[in-house]
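The data are set out underneath:

___
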Amino acid sequence: MRTRRAITPILSVIILIGISVVGGSLLYSVQTQALTTGLSNIKLSVTDLKMEKDSTGACYFQSTVYNSGTESIKFINLKTTLDNGEDFDFEGGFSFGSSLEPGDSTEKPLWLPNTNLNCGNFTIPNTYNVRINATSMNSEFSIITPMKVENVTAT
């Protein structure tokens, strides 16, 4: 009769514990990565967006945005379509040096003189849809907000 040798019970317990530790570590890292990605988001709230034209045809643009998300925003771009059908980029967007932190807001004034051809393509009292794109390290956010062109108000 031949004796078969098997793995000893102590060695089999050590192998099972090792497999459990490796499996648990793998599940933990996958879960942590999924929760971090799922819980962090980029969101922007528009608190002020207006365009005013004076009697000479100069345009005064004002926008104020608030970072209501959980990620730092690196860059914001505002774009609309003019009456002549061309896209108008509000000075190529704006960055914040390092970032726009969650809970902070930023203001972007822009003055276009009456000699600026794009300013002539904004008509009082038309409403223009402005696409606002925000970019963080990991994601992007986009919103479309209406902007009505009005006469300059007294300050």
Remarks:
- Strands lie at 44-53, 59-67, 73-81, 87-89, 94-100, 105-112, 127-136, 140-151.
- Residues 8-39 form one domain.
- The first strand starts at residue 44 and ends at 53.
